[in-house]
Amino acid sequence: MSRSTIETETQILTNFLLSNSTFPDMVDLKTFRSLFPKNLQDHPHVKHLYNHLTLKHAATLETVRKNIDFEAKMSHQLLKRERRETANQNRDEDAEMLNQTDINNVMEVYGEMPAPKSNILPIEDIVKSLEVANQKLQMEMEILDEDCERLTQEIKDIVGDLSTLKFGSFTGANEGLVDSVIEDLARLQDTCDQVVKPAD
């Protein structure tokens, strides 16, 4: 099945099942009213029923449209798979054409050909490496969390000490307060520098 065949089938199904297939296309409101007894043709429920059937039929058409699209997508997927299988089969056949005589002729010209070394790791080794990397990452995250908690607590402590300057009693009796404030500010600057310091 080719791509053009799939597109043709999709077009045929769309034209046959969806073209001019809405409920008003099949029966208009006037014709629909004529199906009822004359004393009921102008009843509001007749138009309400007509609108209800129109919506129900539109939902059915939408389902049909989705099914057509789905079948087209599935056909394209099958076509791609067939092409891959055909390409793989052709490569295998080309490889078989290089028989032992051809290999011997190549060896006479170029000498012994070393066997190719595979650089592909076994899946077990890959999984093990990922597990080790994940463990290291978890440890680093725990260390970072501890550092963040420590620095946060230090900042809180320093801010608490500095609150004495704003709310405390800044009198001569409080000797050494200025030196303490300067020391706390230096500690705060050092702590902030640690927070913003880029990682190595």
CA radius of gyration is: 41 Å
* Structural class by secondary-structure content: mainly alpha
Terminal-residue CA separation: 59 Å
**DSSP summary: helix tally:** 7
Pattern of helices and strands: HHHHHHH
What composes the largest sheet? Answer: none
Shape: elongated
Approximately what portion of the residues adopt beta-strand conformation?
under 5%
Helical content band: over 70%
Low-confidence stretches: none
Count of strand segments: 0
Oligomer: single chain
| Number of self-contained structural domains | 2
Organism: Arthrobotrys oligospora (strain ATCC 24927 / CBS 115.81 / DSM 1491) (Nematode-trapping fungus)
Keywords: Coiled coil
Protein name: Centromere-localized protein 2
Pfam families: Cnl2_NKP2
Textual characterization of the structure:
- This protein has helices at residues 3-17, 23-26, 29-34, 44-97, 100-110, 123-167, 177-196.
- Helix content is 78%, strand content 0%.
- The protein has two domains: 3-110; 123-196.
- The chain contains seven helices and no strands.
- The longest helix is centred in the middle third of the chain and has 54 residues, at 44-97.
- With 200 residues, the chain is mainly α.
Outline the secondary-structure elements:
Elements: H1 3-17, H2 23-26, H3 29-34, H4 44-97, H5 100-110, H6 123-167, H7 177-196
Coiled coil: 127-161
Protein name: Centromere-localized protein 2
InterPro entries: Nkp2/Cnl2
